[in-house]
Amino acid sequence: MANQPVWNPSDKDSGCTLSNSNKTAAQAASNAGSVRSTTSLSAGKWYIEVDLRGTAAINSDRHRCGVANASAGIGGAAGDDANAWVIQGNGQKRTGNSATAYGDTIDTPLRIAIDLDNGKIWFGESTSTWFNSGDPAAGTNAAFTGLSGALFLIFGGS
């Protein structure tokens, strides 16, 4: 598949392992580290699906996925600093070490819509509507707004 993002083996915490030609990331059970994608996005509209179903405690705050800038720490959990904007497996959105109710627990592949021209990101499950009645096509009810600069995909545990 063209333009399929892969995880960066040079930009990850040591507790994160990569396989499947860096398309699959796994996190050690007691590790709170993260991994970023090899390439960043800085403009345009993007749609990504991430399958978290093979991970332990998928519906908890344990697994997090979203976007981060190059300043986001990879030694800690994604979303624990103000440089990452993620959804947790329990459906809460998280940035700056603060979680807020946003969606449902994630039981199917996670979908992410990113509109970097307008600085917005949405999360949802692949088999349902966007969380919080979000509508990327209309630009409404985004999980986070005001995003700018080069952003990488990020995955991590807590």
Task: Give the overall shape, derived from the CA principal axes.
Answer: globular
The biggest sheet, with number of strands, parallel, antiparallel or mixed sense and barrel status, is: 7 strands, antiparallel
* Poorly predicted sequence stretches spanning 5 or more consecutive residues: none
Neighbour order of strands in the largest sheet: 1-4-12-6-7-8-9
**What gap, in angstroms, lies between the N and C termini?**
30 Å
How many strands appear in the DSSP assignment? 12
Mean pLDDT: 86
Strand content: 35-45%
Content-based structural category: mainly beta
Level of helix content? under 10%
Q: How many helical stretches?
A: 0
C-alpha Rg, in Å?
14 Å
Element order: H for helix, E for strand = EEEEEEEEEEEE
SSE arrangement:
Elements: E1 7-12, E2 16-19, E3 24-27, E4 34-41, E5 45-50, E6 63-68, E7 84-88, E8 92-95, E9 98-101, E10 110-115, E11 120-125, E12 151-157
Antiparallel strand pairs: 1-4, 2-3, 4-12, 5-10, 6-7, 6-12, 7-8, 8-9, 10-11
